[in-house]
């Protein structure tokens, strides 16, 4: 059976897109650039010290044929990008000088390359913190029309095919928004549903999770989930979404039939939306450790163009995988127009 990642790699290879890796001074980024290029997954731009990048490639026997290297000591569009950033944020008190300083940071320069269309997406986070990667995505690349919340999802691949689509489920948000209100939670549901369509190619079935199913308990936290479900449904009436549902009612047909009879989602969910970051983060780690699932993420979502974060402990192969995910998301957006 084709795994999730094998299918993502195959799709990426069919139309490799341009991805910038702004943390080129890190050896893992150089290795990932060489691997992704050799495998035909993406057209890579590396930002960093040219000398250091060449040195890493030589020491590791990596070919950088086909990789564009932009030296951060002489960034070609520095002034233009700084002006653009200044215009974007001058009403927040940003000065041209500070904008220039920020643009010298390869992370923010790379994000501006995405904004300006010099590349299609960025992948960073091997060196930068999640917070900084999010800020570059929010402030520079911007958010999708109709979405006000940057969030993230995990692809959870279970070792058995019982749940989700052949054992694959998406969990959100497990990485970005600590305490979403109802409107942010609705955004998280809608963007994760869209991420499912992009990467899985099928229709999402979205469960809005809670400690209650269909009024079995009363609490303001449940009201939040109900309101988020209503808002998401209002924004996207054709989306298969239901809540509030407990985890068992969302996943197990018999429990779903009993606790939420007539629900189009109960027992069939493939996308699980958690009420807050505590629940989401704890759930993904428990699923990983107790159920032996492979967790891929957190993958950022909600940006106008794809931006991806990495764990600082990532390996070159993780960077390659996340790059391939970004390429597939770009392809989807381009096809959708
Ligand atoms: C996303 C994150 C960086 C925002 O940080 P913050 O300190 O709340 O935001 P800032 O004060 O830097 O604000 C930056 C801007 O982004 C906006 N913003 C913050 N979070 C946002 C979100 N999730 N979606 C959209 N916009 C957001 C703010 O409104 C602000 O807008 P403005 O500057 O135009 O007024 C923060 O929530 C974060 O670090 N999350 C990651 C949590 C984490 O560490 N996860 C790893 C373990 S799982």
How do the strands and helices of this protein lay out in sequence?
Elements: H1 4-14, E1 17-21, H2 27-38, E2 42-48, H3 50-60, E3 68-71, H4 78-89, H5 96-103, H6 106-116, E4 121-123, H7 130-141, E5 151-157, E6 168-172, H8 182-200, E7 205-209, H9 220-235, E8 240-245, H10 247-251, H11 253-259, E9 271-273, H12 277-291, E10 294-301, E11 307-308, H13 316-336
Parallel strand pairs: 1-2, 1-4, 2-3, 4-11, 6-9, 7-8, 7-9
Antiparallel strand pairs: 5-6, 5-10
Helix pairs in contact: 1-13, 2-3, 2-13, 4-5, 6-7, 8-9
The protein binds coenzyme A.
Entry keywords:
47% helix; Rossmann fold; globular; binds coenzyme A; 2 domains; 337 residues; 5-stranded parallel β-sheet; 13 helices; alpha/beta; 16% strand; 6-stranded mixed β-sheet
Structure notes:
The protein has helices at residues 4-14, 27-38, 50-60, 78-89, 96-103, 106-116, 130-141, 182-200, 220-235, 247-251, 253-259, 277-291, 316-336; strands spanning 17-21, 42-48, 68-71, 121-123, 151-157, 168-172, 205-209, 240-245, 271-273, 294-301, 307-308. The mean pLDDT is 96. The longest helix is centred in the last third of the chain and has 21 residues, at 316-336. The chain is of the alpha/beta class. The protein folds into 2 domains: 4-142 and 303-336, Rossmann fold (3-Layer(aba) Sandwich); 151-295, Isocitrate/Isopropylmalate dehydrogenase-like (Rossmann fold, 3-Layer(aba) Sandwich). Bound molecules: coenzyme A. The site of coenzyme A has 12 residues, from helix 7. Coenzyme A binds at residues 92, 130-131, 134-135, 138, 149-150, 175-177, 281.
